[in-house]
Amino acid sequence: MKNQVFILLICLLAGSLITSCRKDNKQGSTDQPNISNDVLAQIKAKGFSTRNVHAVNGGYLVEGDIFLSSKELSQRAKVNKVRVAKTEQYSTNNLLAGLPRVIKVKVSGLGSAFVQGTNLAIQRYNALGLRIRFQRVTSGNADITIQGFYEGPSGGYITLGSSGFPTDAGDPFNEIQMNTHPAAYGSNPNVQYVGSVIQHEIGHCIGMRHTDYMDRSYSCGGDPVDEGDGGVGAVYLPGTPSDPDPDSWMLACSNGGNRTFNSNDIIALSYLYQ
């Protein structure tokens, strides 16, 4: 895909700050004709870039893929940012509690590629031997529900999916949304591609931030952009590298292909959940 990147986005405060995965073809303009200066100031105060801000239902989309609700935007963020180098693994302040535990995942109203992609993501996580295991269910209550939305390209990008971070009570974020528009995954979605997106979004649901959250240009290109603390924390995970890590499953952007855990990702997940 020429000049096209697949942005796997930061997922913020569960229930109020949500982010999404995107394909993005251009950086866009710094002009914000429909966004007030007060809103831009609030976005900047949260630690996010004010480039390419888009008004959406219930809030604003910033940095191409981060949803900030109007309510959360007006609240003062808690700052807990720990930086050691530029590309280590990071988690949020909130992690899953009550370990060991089984996380039930349900796919609702989506086609076979999304079901198979979910199975693939679950298989990859369960192979790590963590104290959290995932189980796909077809009925009853689920801890994470994967469902669809339909949204075409806008302003040179298309949203691929979205999720959020764990709750204060130590539960996973309860929803992953996947775009069913043909421009997102095509008319015949590739299971490994879809599964890699779901795998990444599950990472956010259990508390993983982007490996390059402080400089999205590392994986996305363009101008250096710091995703900011966003009130959820950015906690360095010991044992992960201080050098660039181009294969991490939690990089902000990829080329839209198959991506799973590398050795450093496994170190990070094992540090948190093994």
From TrEMBL:
Keywords: Hydrolase, Protease
Protein name per the record: Protease
GO terms for biological process, alphabetical: proteolysis
InterPro entries cross-referenced by the UniProt entry: MetalloPept_cat_dom_sf (IPR024079), Peptidase_M10/M27/M57 (IPR024653)
Record's keyword annotation contains Hydrolase: yes
GO MF terms held by the record: peptidase activity
